[in-house]
Amino acid sequence: MIKVALIGAGRIGQVHSANIVAHPESRLVAIVDAFPEAALSLSEKTGAPVKTLEEVMADPGIDAVVIGSATDTHADFIELAARSGKAIFCEKPVDLSLARVQACLKVVEECRVPLLVGFNRRFDPNFAAVRNRYQQGQIGKAESVLIVSRDPSPPPVSYIQRSGGLFRDMTIHDFDMACYLVDEPVVAVTARGSCVVDPAIGEAGDIDTAVVTLEFASGALGTIVNTRRSGFGYDQRIELLGAEGMLKAENQLENTVLLANEQGTAVANPQYFFLERYHAAYKAEWAHFVDVALGRAQCLSGGKEGEQALRLADAAVESWTTGKTVRL
Amino acid sequence: MIKVALIGAGRIGQVHSANIVAHPESRLVAIVDAFPEAALSLSEKTGAPVKTLEEVMADPGIDAVVIGSATDTHADFIELAARSGKAIFCEKPVDLSLARVQACLKVVEECRVPLLVGFNRRFDPNFAAVRNRYQQGQIGKAESVLIVSRDPSPPPVSYIQRSGGLFRDMTIHDFDMACYLVDEPVVAVTARGSCVVDPAIGEAGDIDTAVVTLEFASGALGTIVNTRRSGFGYDQRIELLGAEGMLKAENQLENTVLLANEQGTAVANPQYFFLERYHAAYKAEWAHFVDVALGRAQCLSGGKEGEQALRLADAAVESWTTGKTVRL
Amino acid sequence: MIKVALIGAGRIGQVHSANIVAHPESRLVAIVDAFPEAALSLSEKTGAPVKTLEEVMADPGIDAVVIGSATDTHADFIELAARSGKAIFCEKPVDLSLARVQACLKVVEECRVPLLVGFNRRFDPNFAAVRNRYQQGQIGKAESVLIVSRDPSPPPVSYIQRSGGLFRDMTIHDFDMACYLVDEPVVAVTARGSCVVDPAIGEAGDIDTAVVTLEFASGALGTIVNTRRSGFGYDQRIELLGAEGMLKAENQLENTVLLANEQGTAVANPQYFFLERYHAAYKAEWAHFVDVALGRAQCLSGGKEGEQALRLADAAVESWTTGKTVRL
Amino acid sequence: MIKVALIGAGRIGQVHSANIVAHPESRLVAIVDAFPEAALSLSEKTGAPVKTLEEVMADPGIDAVVIGSATDTHADFIELAARSGKAIFCEKPVDLSLARVQACLKVVEECRVPLLVGFNRRFDPNFAAVRNRYQQGQIGKAESVLIVSRDPSPPPVSYIQRSGGLFRDMTIHDFDMACYLVDEPVVAVTARGSCVVDPAIGEAGDIDTAVVTLEFASGALGTIVNTRRSGFGYDQRIELLGAEGMLKAENQLENTVLLANEQGTAVANPQYFFLERYHAAYKAEWAHFVDVALGRAQCLSGGKEGEQALRLADAAVESWTTGKTVRL
């Protein structure tokens, strides 16, 4: 059994709190949020008391923290928790600056605490099955991977302004997925992007549509196709092609109902966004963290993975701005 | 908030206990089981104390009971609970004898307590969507319904011997679903059956494969296709054809992964059996019962529905044995 | 190479004429039709001359006839062609009267000419694959078969009046398919039907919606689900369930395009009717007839098959009117 | 009616000869091939006489030529036919050298003869439907297009050596499709490639796996994913995403049959290669050429389109070798 403090009571914090409560080996014992109302509201739902960050860090009865606060607080809170000897679950990214990430991970390493960086898609049952079946040799050596990753609709421009840009905010999940699936070092990154969904995104210095090509050490190629707006839901698919076949994970649809009439046949859309699509993934991710915190499993998504994905995002930014392939 | 006693701590009781615990407006306060070990084991998992049936019935602090014990105890326990003023959630069937069902429902009516009979499929989001969209007029007047309902593999013969036979044990869900979807009285039942899966089932006096044709008041026809063994999982599909189109609910698959190679393309099977397939249905069913117990909703699956489905099952038995269509 | 006369230049005759012309081993050498305009029009398209029935039968240079004229001429023309020593391809049915069919087949047998009765669906590549894979043992012994067979929209009442009724006109294809797939004698037929699509069909003494249950010698059950109006196209599917798995043939869709937007995802309907859906089947059927006429293959769909299907249709009529299972 | 000479009696020539023969307004009147045996064999099948190139060009009774001979003869034969006043259907590419293409097209223009360059995929009913529905405004303005284009297995290295390389031989179809769908000028090309399927392809100076990113004038992005070996058939899919939705064309499968058992559910693979997959496209392409030759339609796939696709292929080669985005 681990006792857990949740730092950040917003949308993603609420997802985690439900999983913490439902897991037979974790207990939610504290809620921290810069906005007292958010903390109080979640406290009422869960019965866990509101505490300050200082109280949490000082309390030796708290085994683990879940950090779901604003991105620019992640690295600081990780260091604080590491120095307090807590097991750490932190939403991605550790930080938008690679140097800051590296410094932070050094602290974690010195303190010898477990750290799970929330690349939730690694725990999606479909994507995990693709990886596992690849590792079992079902398709021979990987030769290419295609990741289609489209959000249903763009976030507010205010979010985009502090997001680190599309490559660091959105594509970072796909960089991680590509590495997770192909399981080889990336040696080159080529990225193209444009702003066609909303000019306000371009005015904020960002893009809303992008294509990234990854080259892996063996020569295998990866393709990531992104947009901030699919219009029809969260389009999340992967195709891993090997020497002896292809493993593919399709979208999860909202339901299995179809309507056929003179006009045609209508089926359900993909589940709308990440809360629905990755519901099972968040649950499995939490179960994995409990295993890690209790020393029963090696972390599948640690600081190194977070650093690696950010490094690829930085390379994509460079490639996009220079029009050149960036070798790593 | 309702306080709930669970009677029957077996497989289906455990499904309900999880839903009772997870629902914000219900609390599991007692567990009853004829087998002390089963009761204790579930008590340890949930923290709810083991009690006797008498204690539960006598305790005015207990608002509702969930009856998931052996079929031949259902009617007695319903009457006991009704006379104790509890809201009642009982697994189907109320009883295998229509006369006993009618006597039992009379008691429930006299005691004016809510009774939900567990036709879980009514709460499946896909099937419920078919019904709702039909009610909204999306396909005009219903002209026929096809229900394919195949178990993955047959139960033990010992189960079959006390099951009431395929029509009363298995098809009963499909009778209920046909009525729920078409929403008209059934005026005739024609049934054919045979034993081709396992001769031991035939020796027990039962069949393992069946086709039932229902005639509704408007002339609409219903077809139910059953087998105790699909071999590939729980095959649960419906097609409701109306004057202006068809609504169809397909199987839920185990995952969205496919493998393509020289030999062909392999996709996942339907979810294996009812615990997986109707996971969401059981959850929604419990939420509906809480609403009913708190007086916020009319019961969608009461005693009348249970009686009606059993009446159709009895007619199917008669039709199967006589080779004649049975008019109701 | 066979030289072929086409008797009947209507819609189905035109389908056959195209296949005769395209096949490298058949040549269309005569067209016969009671309506001179129909004959002339097809003659102009194909270059084959218009002839009278007598000319065709008397011409020893004509090896084979294709009979696609009105149903009530089939048996007479078959006998005429048999006595003239021609190989015969005749659209189903040989006749609506079982006695007439038997008399006609006797003539064919005496004349020792090949006769193919046009159960085109036997030659559909998908259905043929189901049969072949079953024969290869891919699913063990058949335990049940489900045939969904829905026309897109009802024919004119004038057609229905002389059609022999739904069971003899429409279901006859499904009776044949069930026998073709399960490959066992049918021992009992149970049929229910109603008129819900169009009252004018009922006034003509027919039904537009039906369910038939077949019992095979081994105990395997067959289900046929029919309607004259699906509203969304030609719904033609089969599911053959065996002891070790299920073979299923889905509909062929009009195209592979889908449109996804906020309202949902729209895909194509099944191909609209038999000319599109069974395009490949008609072609394969003709190729098979050429093989039969040239003595290179045993006929897969002869007079016996036509007689058997009609016998089942007659039994269905009896069951429907008496409300009893008919044993054969 | 047009009278047609076929130049090149190989595999693709045979596809065209069948369509020429089957079309009511075209007649095959001559076959030319450098290999007399190939010409004779096709002559026997079709009844059309073998002739020399000179005879064909000199014969004023021949209206049109179909050029399906070796790539390095295309430009010469086009010029010859143009100067002889024939309507010209030529397989892609006109030539592997852009300068040679431009010179050749100049001759065609001066001679004012129709030229159709065989980008067969433009005539695929699925892809054409995507284009037409986009043009009708079904998804708003295009923002990105994804083309997955995978051959089932690599051609012999001898073919690769004289193919012009993957971008000019294989991707050229996808460049053309991207332009056809998005219908805007391409302003930049970025390409990455590698050799992972067969080292012999690399030794021949070519790649077998590639990803190309196209930037269109409006900012819309195109992605092309290629490999010489899928292992499971001809993987040919497109996704055109617009401001208001997505149009997608999926693969055509070999059949509609599935087998479900304990091991899972097996469905058919995509049709194996271009002869099957683009069967309908070749037929529609020929019908279009007849319309063009008879002056009834504007050519949908002329010399300009051929030149444009080659220009993009050249840019892809440059981008791949320099590691830089090439602006056009």
TrEMBL record, chains A, B, C, D:
Domain Gfo/Idh/MocA-like oxidoreductase N-terminal: 2-119
Record flagged with keyword Ribosomal protein: no
Native source species: Zobellella denitrificans
Name of this protein: Inositol 2-dehydrogenase
Lineage: Bacteria, Pseudomonadati, Pseudomonadota, Gammaproteobacteria, Aeromonadales
GO-annotated molecular function: nucleotide binding; oxidoreductase activity
SUPFAM superfamilies in the cross-refs: Glyceraldehyde-3-phosphate dehydrogenase-like, C-terminal domain, NAD(P)-binding Rossmann-fold domains
Domain GFO/IDH/MocA-like oxidoreductase: 127-247
InterPro entries from the UniProt entry: Gfo/Idh/MocA-like_OxRdtase_N, GFO_IDH_MocA-like_dom, Myo_inos_IolG, NAD(P)-bd_dom_sf
Top-level taxon: Bacteria
Keyword check for Oxidoreductase: yes
